[in-house]
Recover the amino acids of this structure.
């Protein structure tokens, strides 16, 4: 076993368990700029947590703070229940895979992997055994004598992973580890990494700007922007129940339709969309009174064309462009009065021949229980 | 055939300069095997006497002394320049960076005479160090620092510092900081990090700086001449004396040639010894 | 709450060490400055009384004045020639392969490791063999040989940082190679050319050892005049001259740092 036995379970533990990583109001300033504003985060043992956001959102700052490469200006950081805010990086027991892997160029693969064990004074026989084990784990048995530059990008990444895991870290940090790989290799490495992570049950924090990567690999995702964490939730929830406009527009494609709030109860609210009425989550609209303008965020696959042209069954629009994407077809529809920007409708590529063409009139309606609306923003 | 517009225009001036340099070196080579005609600037027939004369104790000693002087200077320069280069590359404040850069590089542009003269004032019997020590009551008779090897080394270290700092800093600045972060995350403290990661990866800069310092020291003339004051003989001071005091240009030429061969040999040796280490910097 | 910056004892020791070393580097300049204002005619420390008289003597001393003008003439010629030669060769090195390319490159860079006295002696013997006197051309040639490696390096680095697609774009727009060279390549190289020229000029103006061999009474440059002075006199005149030297050089370097970024020129900035 590479991992400590007490976290050797594949499934994330219950949230009540002692967090593997806990951030209490961690803040970091660079000069006048706030790189991270009061981050609160609890990561349960064995969890695969992703920090997702555009570049400059503070996700790398957060990672560096957890790793100990940066000092927090305020707040506390706990790892495995221990306060580490002022613990130097080399005493935090953390494994990191860097974006460019940072394999020591002057050492062999085996010496790279052994490095963390040597710093811990592990005896030679034990080092050899654990290095072999770690290389076997990443399917690089027999590569120990090579130098990093003799390896392919994918192999270098495996070595970096083995080097980070062999010390049995309390947390594994991954800093955009796939961005240097080409597309096919990337998909294969994602699956492999996820398998290894689940097998070892190591708590993992993964930083990326690639939402597809985040959605497919994570147990939970923290969506970040401008130094703030906007939402922490599972991939499904992030996609289907975004908490604010940023999350709704950053994750996946979404079109904005303008509507009016009709009524709301504790959980659900009704929104008028021209002649249609749709149900949305009430929470984001809290505080609005009936009649207030709201923006409805609709996923392209949640819009469907309506047969016939009876008023009241759909919203009218004109097809602006049809884009054939292979597996699916995208229609961009001008809907003056309902949407300021063209509305995107996505439908299976099999329907391509029968789809409306540029300039055609079309009626569409939202068909999903996963609709969200937010208070209208001043334009 | 690929077009190479202006190739002739670009290369021929450089070729002319190279020709001048080659001719000068050839002149040395030719003089070194000619006989010395005392009292005349003309040279005699072919001979190897100049090279056998190099084996005489006076010159053999000067040779060894010079090599030792160069090695000592290069070692001390390396020890002093490394921390400065490290600070130069790692300091975050821009103003502080500029200050370190200007302070450590300015001496490079002052020329050997100004710098040597400054050191004469620092080391002299009534100079700065002796005055300070005397007023502190530590000594009552001046320490002899002028006309000693240590005095020459101190001044030479000062002469070679800037170029060493530049070469080390160039090497250090190309080391990816993530290597050190990776080592840190793997549990390495500052000392271990430096010894196992930063130092080995800066080897190419060390080799380049060390050989340059060696070659510069070998080339130095004003410093050993003025601070050594005839008590510290180096190849450069001997060549000058042979040329301008006794007009023995053939022997001066052979001494220069031997020095040149030795410089190249030492540098080649150093490069060779360091070759396995030097590849470390490649990525 | 906020945390004070962590400074380990190791870091503090490092800062003190670097400060001490920089002190060693700057000590002679400081000492020489104080000495320059010493009223007495002997080199003693610390001065008993102060005056400007050595500065007056330094700028009125005949050999220094002549050396200064000689130096300017030699430097102007040598640095400009080195710039032309170096730029051409850097362009050829960067763009083309040609026969003897690496030989020529090694030869032109070799003055970095060949002792200056060797080059000086070689040129001196050469001039004797060719029976040409030790005039300005010989001194200028020596200086061009010695500063060329620095110009080459400076121009070559700027060439490497130049986006080659700009030249391709220009020629795709119909510009002849000559037009591309003069309207695109050279204008974009200006910072590298200026810094290379400045480098060459400073080094040439200060060159001593080789000049000592190849100059005569009529062509001696300022450093040679200073060397001859220090062998004859021991008054603070030279200290005063050194101070002028140090101030002008530091000023030039600060300007260069301000306009071009010295770190970039010297290739010591992190990437």
């Amino acid at each position: 076993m590479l991992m400590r036995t007490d976290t050797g379970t594949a499934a994330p533990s219950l949230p009540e368990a002692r967090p593997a990583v806990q951030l209490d109001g961690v803040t970091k300033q660079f000069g006048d700029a706030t790189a991270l504003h009061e981050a609160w985060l609890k990561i349960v043992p064995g969890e695969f947590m992703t920090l997702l956001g555009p570049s400059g959102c503070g996700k790398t700052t957060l990672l560096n703070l957890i790793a100990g490469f940066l000092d927090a200006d305020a707040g506390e950081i706990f790892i495995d229940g221990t306060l580490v805010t002022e613990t130097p990086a080399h005493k935090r027991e953390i494994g990191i895979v860097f974006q460019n892997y940072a394999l020591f160029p002057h050492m062999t693969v085996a010496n790279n992997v052994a490095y963390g064990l040597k710093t811990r004074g592990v005896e030679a026989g034990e080092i050899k055994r654990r290095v072999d084990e770690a290389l076997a784990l990443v399917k690089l048995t027999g590569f120990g004598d090579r130098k990093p530059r003799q390896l392919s990008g994918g192999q270098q990444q495996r070595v970096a992973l083995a080097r980070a895991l062999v010390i049995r870290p309390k947390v594994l940090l991954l800093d955009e580890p796939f961005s240097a790989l080409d597309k096919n290799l990337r998909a294969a490495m994602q699956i492999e990494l996820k398998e290894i992570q689940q097998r070892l049950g190591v708590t993992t924090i993964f930083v990326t700007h690639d939402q597809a990567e985040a959605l497919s690999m994570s147990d939970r995702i923290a969506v970040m922007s401008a130094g703030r964490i906007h939402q922490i939730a599972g991939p499904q929830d992030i996609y289907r129940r975004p908490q604010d406009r940023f999350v709704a527009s950053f994750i996946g494609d979404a079109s904005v339709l303008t509507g009016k709030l009709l009524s709301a109860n504790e959980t659900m609210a009704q929104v008028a969309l021209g002649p249609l009425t749709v149900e949305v989550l009430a929470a984001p609209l809290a505080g609005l009174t009936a009649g207030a303008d709201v923006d409805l965020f609709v996923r392209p696959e949640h819009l469907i064309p309506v047969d016939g042209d009876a008023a009241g069954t759909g919203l009218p629009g004109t097809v602006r462009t049809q884009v054939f994407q292979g597996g699916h077809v995208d229609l961009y529809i001008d809907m003056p009065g309902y949407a300021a920007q063209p509305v995107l409708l996505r439908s299976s590529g099999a329907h391509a021949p029968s789809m409306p063409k540029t300039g055609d009139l079309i009626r569409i309606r939202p068909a999903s229980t996963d609709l969200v609306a937010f208070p209208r923003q001043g334009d | 055939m690929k077009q190479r517009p202006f190739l002739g225009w670009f290369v021929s001036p450089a070729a002319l300069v190279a020709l001048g340099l080659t001719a000068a070196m050839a002149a040395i080579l030719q003089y070194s095997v000619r006989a010395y005609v005392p009292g005349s600037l003309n040279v005699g027939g072919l001979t190897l006497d100049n090279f056998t004369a190099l084996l005489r104790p006076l010159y053999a000693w000067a040779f060894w002394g010079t090599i030792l002087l160069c090695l000592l200077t290069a070692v001390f320069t390396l020890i002093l320049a490394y921390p400065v280069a490290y600070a130069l590359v790692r300091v975050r404040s821009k103003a502080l960076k500029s200050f370190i850069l200007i302070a450590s590089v300015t001496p490079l542009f002052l020329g050997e005479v100004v710098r040597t003269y400054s050191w004469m004032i620092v080391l002299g019997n009534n100079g700065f160090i002796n005055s300070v020590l005397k007023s502190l009551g530590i000594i009552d008779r001046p320490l002899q620092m002028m006309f000693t090897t240590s005095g020459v080394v101190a001044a030479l270290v000062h002469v070679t510092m800037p170029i060493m700092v530049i070469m080390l800093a160039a090497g250090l600045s190309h080391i990816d900081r993530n290597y050190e972060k990776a080592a840190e995350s793997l549990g390495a403290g500052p000392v271990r990090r430096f010894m196992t990661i930063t130092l080995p990866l800066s080897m190419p800069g060390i080799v380049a700086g060390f050989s340059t310092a060696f070659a510069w020291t070998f080339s130095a003339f004003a410093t050993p001449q003025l601070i050594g004051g005839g008590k510290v003989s180096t190849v450069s001071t001997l060549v000058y004396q042979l040329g301008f005091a006794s007009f023995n240009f053939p022997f001066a030429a052979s001494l220069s040639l031997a020095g040149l061969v030795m410089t190249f040999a030492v540098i080649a040796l150093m490069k060779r010894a360091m070759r396995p280490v030097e590849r470390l910097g490649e990525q | 709450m906020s945390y004070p910056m962590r400074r380990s004892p190791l870091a503090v020791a490092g800062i003190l060490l670097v400060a001490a070393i920089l002190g060693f580097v700057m000590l002679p300049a400081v000492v020489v400055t104080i000495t320059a204002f010493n009223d007495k005619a002997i080199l003693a420390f610390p001065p008993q009384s102060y005056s400007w008289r050595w500065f007056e003597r330094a700028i009125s001393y005949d050999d220094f004045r002549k050396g200064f003008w000689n130096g300017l003439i030699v430097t102007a010629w040598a640095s400009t020639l080195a710039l032309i030669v170096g730029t051409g060769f850097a362009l050829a090195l960067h763009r083309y392969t040609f026969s003897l390319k690496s030989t020529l490159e090694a030869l032109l860079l070799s003055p970095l490791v060949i002792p200056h006295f060797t080059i000086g002696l070689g040129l001196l013997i050469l001039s004797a063999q060719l029976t040409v006197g030790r005039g300005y051309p010989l001194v200028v040639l020596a200086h061009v040989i010695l500063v060329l490696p620095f110009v080459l390096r400076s121009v070559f680095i700027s060439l490497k940082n130049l986006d080659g697609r700009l030249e391709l774009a220009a020629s795709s727009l119909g510009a002849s190679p000559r037009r591309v060279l003069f309207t695109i390549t050279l204008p974009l190289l200006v910072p590298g050319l200026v810094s290379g020229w400045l480098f060459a000029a400073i080094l040439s103006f200060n060159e001593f050892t080789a000049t000592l061999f190849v100059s005569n009474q009529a062509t001696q440059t300022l450093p040679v005049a200073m060397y001859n002075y220090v062998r004859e006199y021991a008054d603070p005149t030279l200290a005063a001259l050194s101070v002028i030297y140090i101030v002008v050089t530091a000023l030039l370097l600060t300007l260069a740092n301000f306009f071009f970024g010295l770190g970039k020129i010297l290739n010591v900035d992190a990437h």
About this structure: Chain C touches chain A through five residues (CB under 8 Å). The two ends of chain C are 35 Å apart (CA to CA). Confidence is low (pLDDT under 50) at residues 1-5 of chain C.
